[in-house]
């Protein structure tokens, strides 16, 4: 895993320029699903032909293994099992990064992922995880007030983060009232930094924030290699990741770290999002897919015509038959 600290200029860091990013190769997914719908099975044929190792059938579902003997795609049959597996995976990574780097930088999406992360704030993980090492970012945020039901920030705070740590989340009425682009960026990115573990509430463009973190001793550089990004995407209607929608020009953005979208096909129309090069510079990317309506997009994504253009997954959690 790379540990280099990039040199920054006022322009975009080198590793965000097209094709110069240090990224891991997309995992060779070896798939062997016994119980998939015929539509999904057919989409998996190419992968299956490439299978070099058999999958194992765990009590909770099917685990697939790549050529490096790493579990890549895990199909769970209940949402409960998915949440347990996701918690273990995340807790293990937290442990690894905390020990190796002294920090664990996590990027979360909104959506149903937050509910699926609930096991992390239950025993045994809530006590075993060193939460003080966590640095949490949002992969995308809707431009709405932070107390709005559509806010990914609020979703994660209510459903997950406020139940962890002894994080003191100072209510900041002024910030909560703001709905402008800048405040969304600032508040969408919370840093429970040591030692006070409080939320950062100053207005700051997220790019500057990342650059500051990158330069600081508090944590190791975010891109290219110490981030764990967890996405809940593949929405029924489109198959987006973060606020990057199939067919949208923003998918091709390769100069900015964070981009603004004003015509999101999924409401609300105005959002901010990490760009694909930044997402792909994560050391680990997990995709959590729940919901019957997502079957078609799963088929496309696991097949050759991926709608997740260019997202290199480390781990895919798929809830079967929901
Ligand atoms: O709009 C968004 O939706 C997705 C997924 O939502 P879900 O309802 O299908 O779970 C989420 O990944 C993203 O962060 C969010 O802004």
TrEMBL record:
Q: Which taxonomic lineage is given here?
A: Eukaryota, Viridiplantae, Streptophyta, Embryophyta, Tracheophyta
Entries under Pfam families matching the protein:
Glucosamine_iso
- SUPFAM superfamilies per record: NagB/RpiA/CoA transferase-like (SSF100950)
Q: In which pathway does it act?
A: Carbohydrate degradation; pentose phosphate pathway
Instruction: Outline the extent of the Glucosamine/galactosamine-6-phosphate isomerase domain.
Output: 78-305
State the organism of origin. Salix suchowensis
Residue spans making up a coiled coil are none
Protein name, UniProt field: Glucosamine/galactosamine-6-phosphate isomerase domain-containing protein
Q: What family does this chain come from, according to its entry? A: Belongs to the glucosamine/galactosamine-6-phosphate isomerase family. 6-phosphogluconolactonase subfamily.
């Amino acid at each position: 895993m790379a540990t280099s600290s990039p040199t920054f200029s006022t322009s975009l860091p080198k590793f965000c320029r097209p094709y110069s990013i240090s990224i891991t190769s997309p995992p060779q997914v070896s798939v062997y699903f016994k119980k998939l719908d015929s539509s999904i099975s057919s989409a998996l044929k190419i992968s299956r032909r490439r299978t070099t190792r058999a999958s194992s059938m765990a009590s909770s579902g099917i685990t697939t293994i790549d050529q490096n003997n790493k579990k890549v795609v895990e199909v769970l049959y209940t949402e409960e099992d998915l949440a347990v597996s996701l918690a273990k995976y995340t807790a293990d990574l937290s442990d690894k990064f905390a020990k190796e780097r002294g920090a664990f930088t996590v990027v979360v999406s909104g959506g149903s992922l937050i509910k699926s992360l609930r096991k992390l704030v239950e025993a045994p993980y809530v006590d075993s995880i060193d939460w003080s090492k966590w640095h949490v970012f949002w992969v995308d945020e809707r431009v709405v007030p932070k107390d709005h039901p559509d806010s990914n920030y609020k979703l994660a705070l209510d459903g997950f983060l406020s139940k962890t740590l002894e994080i003191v989340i100072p209510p900041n009425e002024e910030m909560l009232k703001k709905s402008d682009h800048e405040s969304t960026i600032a508040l969408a990115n919370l840093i429970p930094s040591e030692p006070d573990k409080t939320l950062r509430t100053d207005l700051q463009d997220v790019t500057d924030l990342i650059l500051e973190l990158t330069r600081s001793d508090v944590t190791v550089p975010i891109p290219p290699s110490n981030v764990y990004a967890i996405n809940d995407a593949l929405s029924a209607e489109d198959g987006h990741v973060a606020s990057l929608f199939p067919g949208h020009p923003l998918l091709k953005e390769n100069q900015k770290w964070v981009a603004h979208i004003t015509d999101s096909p999924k409401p609300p129309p105005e959002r901010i999002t990490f760009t694909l090069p930044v997402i792909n510079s994560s050391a680990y990317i997990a995709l959590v897919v729940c919901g019957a309506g997502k079957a078609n997009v799963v088929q496309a994504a696991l097949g050759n015509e991926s709608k997740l253009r260019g997202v290199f997954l480390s781990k895919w959690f798929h809830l079967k038959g929901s």
